[in-house]
Specification:
The chain is mostly helical and about 120 residues long. The chain has one domain. The protein is about 75% helix and about 0% strand. It contains 5 helices and no strands. Helix 1 crosses helix 4 and helix 1 packs antiparallel against helix 5. The longest helix has 24 residues.
């Protein structure tokens, strides 16, 4: 139960952060998409991995492991897994953050997937 509260807190914090980010617009006032835009589904998958990694790092901090090394390793793996660079992730994140409705849907999908994973783990 406490794990779910932590996940929800992270997701809400992430949503607030995304909403507060600025957005690039073209001359007509539309958001300018990144050169290599990912789909909302792909962004959801990346964010699920990021939040799972945040949980793993938090657990490692509690056990006093070398967090900086682990975090660098985990985040590098996530970007490699999703075939993204750090710049591509940031551009896509900021792009979707500029569309509150789209980002809210992505965050809700992230929460649903994390809840589903938690349910599967609890059944074992």
């Amino acid at each position: 139960m406490q794990d779910m509260k932590a996940i929800n807190f992270l997701c809400i914090s992430l949503l607030v952060l995304m909403i507060s980010c600025g957005e690039k617009k073209d001359s007509v006032g539309k958001k300018t998409p990144p050169a290599e835009i990912v789909t909302p589904e792909q962004m959801k998958e990346v964010l699920v991995d990021v939040l799972l990694t945040e949980g793993a790092i938090g657990t490692a901090e509690m056990k006093h492991h070398d967090i900086k090394y682990q975090a660098l390793h985990y985040y590098s793996y996530i970007l490699k897994k999703h075939k993204m660079t750090n710049q591509q992730f940031n551009e896509n994140f900021n792009y979707y953050a500029g569309d509150v409705d789209q980002m809210e849907k992505i965050i809700n999908d992230v929460i649903s997937e994390l809840s589903e994973k938690e349910g599967m783990i609890r059944k074992k």
